Automatic annotation (TrEMBL):
Gene3D superfamilies: eubacterium ventriosum atcc domain. This is Stage V sporulation protein AA. It comes from Faecalicatena contorta. The keyword Membrane applies. Residues 6-93 form the Stage V sporulation protein AA domain. The keyword Membrane applies. InterPro entries: SporV_AA, SporV_AA_N_sf. The chain crosses the membrane at residues 102-123, 147-167. It comes from the Bacteria. Keywords: Membrane, Transmembrane, Transmembrane helix.
């Protein structure tokens, strides 16, 4: 077992997806070292062996990863630049047919459209928008509104423009480089899910960490 005094910098994301049962260091973290010959060897270092088929999740501590590296390279200095705990999600890669993608997209679009339309109609009904427009039109013009006037037209156009500006998105086109409100909420939701998974694994003592015996980590080789 050779002693190495180089420094390796590791950076791992909080959530990593893998499609093979033998998980190596290169599958879950990116790394940098002045010794370029060492990086390919580290990338092939086995960290975890998935015991069963099917979708599974494991939480592994960066300390466990460092311990696995030190087993083979005892003198190697390691600097962690990423997450303290990494969620490894194993799922067999399956490519559904294009027809299913089209059906799912159509269903999501239909549900979103109907939900948004119902929300707008419910709001307009609650605040009596039609009655308000009718009264304004009658006060200004002196004529009775037939329900389809310049007020309703400009209101509809204004709602459309407001939605496009707020969500900063139309088809594949963005109006600015900022993330959309939907993307922000999705990232917050993902962070909450990942935090819950890590805390839950820690409380149940299922996290792969140093000083903890685990049948999964014992079958690493």
């Amino acid at each position: 077992m050779a002693v190495n005094h180089d420094t390796v910098y590791l950076k791992g994301d909080r959530n990593v997806e893998v499609q093979k049962m033998d998980v190596t260091l290169g599958d879950i973290v990116s790394m940098e070292c002045s010794n370029k010959e060492l990086i390919p060897k580290l990338k092939t270092l086995k960290i975890l062996k998935i015991p069963n088929q099917g979708k599974q999740r494991f939480v592994i501590s960066i300390l466990k990863i460092i311990a696995c590296i030190h087993e083979k390279y005892p003198g190697l200095e390691i600097q962690n630049m990423g997450e303290q705990d990494i969620i490894i999600t194993y799922e067999e890669q399956k490519t559904p047919p294009m027809f299913m993608h089209v059906v799912k997209t159509a269903c999501v679009a239909l549900i979103t459209f109907c939900g948004a339309a119902f929300s707008i109609m419910a709001f307009n009904n609650d605040v009596a928008t039609a009655k308000l427009f009718s009264q304004i039109y009658e006060y200004v013009t002196g004529s009775t509104s037939d329900g389809f006037t310049i007020l309703e037209v400009t209101y509809s156009i204004g709602i459309t423009i407001g939605i496009l500006v707020f969500f900063n998105h139309f088809g594949k086109k963005r109006f600015t480089v900022d993330p959309t409100p939907m993307e922000v909420q999705m990232r917050l939701y993902e962070n909450d899910i990942q935090t819950t998974l890590i805390e839950d694994a820690s409380r149940r003592e299922q996290e792969l960490d140093v000083g903890k015996s685990n049948h999964i980590s014992s079958h690493r080789n």
